[in-house]
Amino acid sequence: MAKTKDQDVPGVKAYDGPAGGWGALGAVARAIKDQMAIAEDTRALLRMNQPAGFDCPGCAWPDPKHTSSFEFCENGAKAVSWETTSKRTTPEFFVAHTVAELWTWSDYALEDEGRLTHPMAYDRATDRYLPVSWDDAFRRIGETLQGYDDPDVVEFYTSGRTSNEAAFLYQIFVREYGTNNFPDCSNMCHEATSVGLPVSIGVGKGTVTLEDFDLCDAIFCIGHNPGTNHPRMLTTLREAAKRGVPIVVFNPLRERGLERFAAPQSPLEMLTLGSTPIASAYHQVKVGGDVAVFKGMMKALLAADAAAIAAGGDSLLDRAFIAEHTTGFKALAADLETVSWEVIEAQSGLPRAAIESAAQVYAAAKNVIICYGMGLTQHLHGTSNVQQLANLLLLRGNIGRPGAGICPLRGHSNVQGDRTVGITEIPSDGLLNAIQQIFGFDPPRGKGHNAVESIQAICEGRSKAIICLGGNLAVAMSDPEAVFAGMRKLDLAVHIATKLNRSHLLLARESIILPCLGRTEIDIQETGAQSVTVEDSMSMVHASRGTLPPASDQLRSEPAIVAGLALATLPGTKVDWAGLVADYARIRDKIEAVYPDFHDFNARIATPGGFRLTVAASDRKWLTPSGKANFLVCAGVEEDPRASGAGALRLTTIRSHDQYNTTIYGLNDRYRGITGRRDVIFLNQQDLAALGLSHGDRIDIETVAEGEDRPRVLHGMTAVAHDIAAGSAAAYYPEANGLVALGQYDERSGTPAYKSIPVTIRRAA
Ligand SMILES: Nc1nc2c(c(=O)[nH]1)N[C@H]1C(S)=C(S)[C@@H](COP(=O)(O)OP(=O)(O)OC[C@H]3O[C@@H](n4cnc5c(=O)[nH]c(N)nc54)[C@H](O)[C@@H]3O)O[C@H]1N2
Ligand SMILES: Nc1nc2c(c(=O)[nH]1)N[C@H]1C(S)=C(S)[C@@H](COP(=O)(O)OP(=O)(O)OC[C@H]3O[C@@H](n4cnc5c(=O)[nH]c(N)nc54)[C@H](O)[C@@H]3O)O[C@H]1N2
Ligand SMILES: [Mo]
């Protein structure tokens, strides 16, 4: 007999608890124990995110202004204990294991060996990484880099944990070397925001501050999972919910953190096993159906507005704002006329009434904040998603006034700052001119490679070497099979990292691992202990200072490693690398010189909480060519026609509660009821039945191909009946990355379409 949702499938059992609560406390205790973290670590956790402490590497959600007490966060605690672990990946470890053997290990097992302790270089004769001195490592890298006539054959990747100071030095080094090849984790993340919003509102960042959440009258949460990925946001959402602020969610999956939250700081909720309901309305939009939702909401709003005016009432639009501050309203209205409700319903998977009710909540609230994450950006039409969302806000003047605005949840804790201080493949003339004036060399003017382009260049043999400042690019990128093959053809691969991961095992002719300090660790340079700075999702810049002894006395800081690379690569350098690294305040002086918005940088980070960078749109200054905010039209509402064919489902890829991107902390996903495994595909019960399948069946999942080079199949997964929109499926990232072809990305932003993969599903052979 077919199994139903409630029957036993190993490792699958619905979780009834709220987000947070005792479940979270227990998980923290286990995370600390698993990493054998010592008492000092717990103390470090307590100092986390306080003025004198370090910035939590867990996420980019801002800190409340006047926190004096430790803000509890389960996943922040996991991120910190994973870094402060007492486990070590030593030279002895590398002697004991060939790279061929390590390749067979899981991603979890590789990182679980703990912190890297020594610079290591690959030795082909023994198939092992062997220790190398820092000087030798730099010399070898410098020689290879100097050997290229064309600097554009080298790729310089950045992952978003890197501090402003390290990122700034890195871009100066790379530009002095002569290329703008800056593939960046942001290219796989919020690039649709960075590309889409400047056209809409003149800045590629969010416009709200944390204080705006105290003043808003409605919040929309679209395509993000705060309970797991920005857990400190739950405190903010809880306060808003308690104030009676409607919180409207659009998400294909029912995510526990958006349903109810028990604040571990609340003795009442903890002792009574109570919790606070979060979402006032939860709309399970079909994967990839968001443009349809936004167009539907705007259509409903315009219809209601016309009705209100016809009845002699006030307009529901902010017409004064539209007239004074925007262009393109007529074209938008005309586009909305052409989209039928039938199409909107089919694409979004939601009834018209649901979308109309969301539009009503939107229209009834004076101040609205819309938050969003990867559920919107990682689509073929990610940029359109973001721009249609901006349209919706502009219709009621919800940008540039207190309590209202757009709130992209950034990913890595400093991904936004890295971009701000110059990690970009398309630098503005202003930036390049400032660099030229301040550092005295001629930076390259051509466009460089983003992440997908860098991989394409590597796969086609046009790029010869890669330097990675953190991250795990080969595993994070789509189409690992192609990426792995490309990486193995390189002359040189250098990884600046805290822990071993699969990218390090993709051997180039010469492969070098350079171990660095993490953010939790004390960073001593010539003038003493140093602080670094980071920028959060709300453009707040603040200092972070490590408090723990380094994992090994061989570790160097990221700024010091960048300086070492620069000195070995650029014999005629115009930059005083040693002087800058001796005192990071001098790096900040240079940042300030290049970016005037950082004025009085060193003084302003001395105040607790730091300072906010200017976000022009927050003050209704529109840095667009028209000088106004722009309503933008996108054609149609269809995400990917291949996903609408007979039997096709739209697969999205998501993070479990026990992972940080490619770092897998454990095999559980508590809120989704998964224990000890990740080989599952979440499916709607109706879809399962229609396919003649049952909960617990072993299935194969294949990408619907159209002119693709080879079939993409994930074999032997287990079907899990889940509360997910019909027509949609979900699997874990990065296991499912092989289903995404390298060529499947948003053409405007280059963001891979990780969140809407057309697939078919069948019983495993
Ligand atoms: N603990 C932890 N924290 C993290 C990370 C981590 O891995 N672990 N990663 C960091 C990084 S780099 C990032 S970018 C952020 C990511 O934070 P999120 O954006 O929250 O990340 P995802 O897990 O990718 O989840 C996206 C959410 O979108 C929903 N979704 C999927 N497809 C669609 C769709 O088509 N439409 C809509 N409306 N929703 C959809 C999913 O159900 C899921 O709830 O988190 C950061 N913080
Ligand atoms: N299918 C699918 N693919 C995705 C996504 C998705 O949702 N679905 N999300 C995409 C997104 S949003 C992102 S941001 C990318 C993430 O891509 P990356 O940023 O490249 O990947 P991470 O897994 O965050 O990198 C983990 C590694 O960073 C190193 N590390 C950790 N801390 C530090 C540090 O302080 N310094 C240095 N130098 N190294 C450190 C460790 O060695 C660790 O192994 O993945 C993308 N890929
Ligand atoms: Mo991200």
From TrEMBL:
**Mind telling me which Pfam families this protein's record contains?**
Molybdopterin (PF00384), Molydop_binding (PF01568)
Q: State the superkingdom.
A: Bacteria
The cross-references to Gene3D superfamilies, in alphabetical order and at most eight, read: 2.40.40.20, 3.40.50.740, Dimethylsulfoxide Reductase, domain 2
Q: Where is the Molybdopterin dinucleotide-binding domain?
A: 649-757
InterPro entries documented for this protein? Asp_de-COase-like_dom_sf, MopB_CT_YdeP, MoPterin_dinucl-bd_dom, Mopterin_OxRdtase, Mopterin_OxRdtse_a_bac, Prok_molybdopt-oxidoreductase, YdeP_MopB
Q: Which residues form the Molybdopterin oxidoreductase domain?
A: 115-499
The cofactors required by this protein are: [4Fe-4S] cluster; Mo-bis(molybdopterin guanine dinucleotide)
Q: What are the entry keywords?
A: 4Fe-4S, Iron, Iron-sulfur, Metal-binding, Molybdenum, Oxidoreductase
Task: Tell me the protein family, please.
Answer: Belongs to the prokaryotic molybdopterin-containing oxidoreductase family.
Q: What is this protein called?
A: Molybdopterin-dependent oxidoreductase alpha subunit
Q: What is the native source organism of this protein?
A: Inquilinus ginsengisoli
